Amino acid sequence: MSAHTGRLLLSPQDPFLLPERAPLTATLSEAGLLGTPLEGRNQAFAVGERFLQLVIFAGCSVRIELSPIGEAPFCHIRFTGPFRQPVFLSGRNTRPPRCRSCRGRLRSWREALSGRDNAGVQITCPACSEASPPWGYDWKGQAGFGRLFIRVEEVFPGEATPTPALMGLLEGSSGCKWQHFYIQDD
Q1: Which strands make up the sheet holding 76-80, listed edge to edge?
Q2: Where exactly are the structural domains of the chain?
Q3: Using alpha carbons only, what angle is made at residue 104 by residues 177 and 131, rounded to the nearest 5 degrees?
Q4: Which of 64, 143, 165, 167 is most enclosed, with most CB atoms within 10 A?
């Protein structure tokens, strides 16, 4: 099996919000982001006919598989959640976040977040002593928090960007602002 290329994740900016999945699925299907449900893959969809208009790929030699070929990785969309409380998603590409007050790095982020319920956590910046929830730090699009995620699988971090049209669809369907970030599995 080949190494995980990475994924683009979309989630509400407020990690406590939990939009209803059914209206999101209907909106994204109608807009052409989601194709048919993938058999044997829970909450996963093939990419739709307008996927490449709603997610922009940049780079000189972008290569993505849009349909399954045997067991090889391919680009598809999966919903993850709902979760009772905000969960933290990170990967091998995640770097120490920066404090939004002083821009100091939180080098001990793994220890600060390990084995905790993130709902009430406050992390004190070692540089300026400002206490913030973990989602209050600047993760530079390399990690995120939420109760529901839309995952665009098998895209290299930073290679795919949701268009303003896609972000508008998500906001219109859910009534809340959305964010995006990228992770790669270990």
Answers
A1: 34-37, 44-47, 76-80, 149-153, 7-12, 178-183
A2: 7-86+141-183, 95-138
A3: 65
A4: 143
Residue 122: count of CB within 10 angstroms of its CB: 11
186's tokens: 């270990």
pTM of the model: 0.90
Residue in the block written with tokens 């939009």: 19
pLDDT 10s per residue in the chain (186 long)?
Answer: 456 689 999 999 999 999 999 999 999 999 999 999 988 677 899 999 999 999 998 866 667 777 766 676 788 999 999 999 999 999 999 999 999 999 999 999 888 887 666 667 889 999 999 999 999 999 999 999 999 999 999 888 888 999 999 999 999 999 999 999 999 986
Alpha-carbon span 103 to 137, nearest angstrom: 9
CA angle 82, 94, 8 (to 5 degrees): 50
The DSSP code sequence of 40-92 is: TSTTEEEE-TTHHHHEEE-SSS-----S--TTS---EEEEE---SS-EEEE-T
